[in-house]
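Why does residue order matter? Because the sequence determines the fold. Keep that principle in mind as you read this record.
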Amino acid sequence: MKKYISLFIVLVGVCGNTAHAQNQADALIRQGNKLYEQQKYNDAAADYQKALTKNPNYTPGLFNLGNSLYQQQKFDASRQVMTATANATKDKTAKAGVNYNIGNTYMAEKKWEDAVNSYKQTLRNNPQDLDAKYNLSYAEQMLKKQQQQGGGGSKDQKKDDKKDKNKDKQNQKQNKDDKGKDKDKDKQNQDQQNKDNKDDKDKQDQQPQSQPSKLTQQQADQVLNALQNEEKKLQDKLNKEKGIPARMDKDW
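Structure:
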């Protein structure tokens, strides 16, 4: 970006103490310009400030002081000095240069809207300034991009963003409610399962259980003999009813 460095101005026809003070101011500005070219911006600013003590409204001193502050990234201080410079001159070219540099301070801080306004003011005073046109176009593009990303966007964009946020909140609430319902349903299913298991156990407890035999071997033999005798009596009775002759054992 273009930087404006103002040349010192030699006033002619001024005499006495005023002429002497002006000569001192001019000398200090020349010295400050040399330091500025060596990128010793802090030292240059000191010389410009000394020059302004000789003539507080001396435009070259104000202009170059603003530039040296810009180079030190003291953007707010630079703008204040540049504004004072614009108020101190009626020259349109000088005013254009001042507003251009103010625009540069806003560009450095990514304050795109302020930069746009400053470059427009530059072109009002100097419509042929190609650097100002280029910087204006760049600042407008960055401002538009910022607005599209929501950083100071349009009312419609903000309204849409608000709708999206509300919708997200509703979805989150619905998901929370659904999870709560699922949790309650799982608890009900578990409770029912536990109840069924308890009922099955109660039914099993109510059913008669088989008892192991406690008969001795002798008692078991007696029961078996009794059953065999009963069966033999029953068989004999059936044979008599059918007319079957009784078996005779053969004597050899």
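Residues 6-16, 206-214, 241-252 have pLDDT under 50 and may be disordered.
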